[in-house]
């Protein structure tokens, strides 16, 4: 896939450990079957993980049958765009890795919202 990120350049990988992405390919790639729109590459925080669990999406508990080992603060993950927007509205949006966030995320949130929460660390 030659997907673009929100910056208009080639979509960078989000995470191989833990292995993320709708296709579990390490990238926030998508297609019509991705009804959750797993588009936004984030660096999860403890606050966000607590919020997500309380909202019914437990990202901490391992689910080996889905090749999911559970997330820890600091892990990078392709997050559903609407979940990120919910976290934003709740004041707990995790930092975003713009280079690894799929361009389609802009159908759900604005570039200004993403840039305000841009992860300031090393991308790779």
Task: Please characterize this protein's 3D structure.
- Strands 1-2 form a two-stranded antiparallel ribbon.
- It has helices at 46-54, 81-89, 111-116, and strands at residues 38-43, 76-80.
- The protein has a single domain, classed as Phenylalanyl-tRNA Synthetase, Chain B, domain 1 (2-Layer Sandwich), CATH 3.30.56.110.
- By secondary structure, the protein is α+β, with helices and mostly antiparallel strands.
- The chain has three helices and two strands, in the order βαβαα.
- It starts with 37 loop residues before the first strand and ends in an 8-residue tail after the last helix.
- Helices cover 19% and strands 9% of the residues.
Determine the CATH superfamily.
Protein of unknown function DUF2237
Query: How many distinct domains?
Result: 1
Low-confidence stretches: none
Question: Could you tell me the number of beta strands?
Answer: 2
Number of helices: 3
Quick structural summary:
The chain is α+β, with helices and mostly antiparallel strands and 124 residues long.
List strands and helices in order, with pairings:
Layout: E1 38-43, H1 46-54, E2 76-80, H2 81-89, H3 111-116
Antiparallel strand pairs: 1-2
Task: Give a quick set of tags describing it.
124 residues; alpha+beta; Phenylalanyl-tRNA Synthetase, Chain B, domain 1; 3 helices; 2 strands; 9% strand; globular
